[in-house]
Amino acid sequence: MNVNKKLGRFKQWAGEKMGGEAKTGVSDDFKNLELEMTLRHEGLDKMHGSMATYVKSLSRRAEGNDREKTLPGGHLGSTMVTHSEDFEPDSEFGNCLSSLGRANERLARVQETYVAGATSTWLEGLERGLAQMKEYQAARKKLEARRLAYDAALAKMEKAKKEDFRVEEELRSQKAKYEESSEDVYRRMQDIKESEVDLVGDLTSFLEAELTYYDRCREVLLNVKREWPAR
């Protein structure tokens, strides 16, 4: 890009800011889609942040006596089991500790499975959505640059005092580039809307993973309660 073209674009941008130049407009449908993309982007970004925090909190590990990092629930269970071995085999307290401790170790394994499922469904789905939105933003930035170039060429054409083939050719070229980018941005916005199907699928899978997690946790604890050693 040469200096004259850059200067032309700057003058066009400055003219718009000062109200001295007309800005190439887009349809109301296009504007509404752009607004929708902004809202979608903000929503995806916030959901991704909260989901990442949620998964991280479930994945945070504690350091046990053997220096092995385990989930807090698993660490809790192992300390119960270890202390239960300090009592006689027929100790009610010792057997209760062992029973609930081993249950918590199992719950930690269930939690690890759940974290993996939550990550591979909703979290990764959100990341794909943000990646798609990033590509749209890049295309939108390119469109704005081409719009400025097109408007600069149009202003140059209007100010020409006589026919100039080079000016006309530049205008045709910039218009074609602008229309190409406009179509690309519009297509990307439509693709983002259509990708809702994939996001719904990811969200459904996350719901199933969450249901399975809590069902298994309840099952483990109910089994402990049914065989609780305390009289």
UniProtKB/TrEMBL annotation:
<dbReference type="Pfam" id="PF03114">
    <property type="entry name" value="BAR"/>
</dbReference>
<feature type="domain" description="BAR">
    <location>
        <begin position="15"/>
        <end position="231"/>
    </location>
</feature>
<keyword id="KW-0175">Coiled coil</keyword>
<dbReference type="InterPro" id="IPR027267">
    <property type="entry name" value="AH/BAR_dom_sf"/>
</dbReference>
<protein>
    <submittedName>
        <fullName>BAR-domain-containing protein</fullName>
    </submittedName>
</protein>
<dbReference type="InterPro" id="IPR004148">
    <property type="entry name" value="BAR_dom"/>
</dbReference>
<dbReference type="GO" id="GO:0005737">
    <property type="term" value="C:cytoplasm"/>
</dbReference>
<feature type="coiled-coil region">
    <location>
        <begin position="126"/>
        <end position="177"/>
    </location>
</feature>
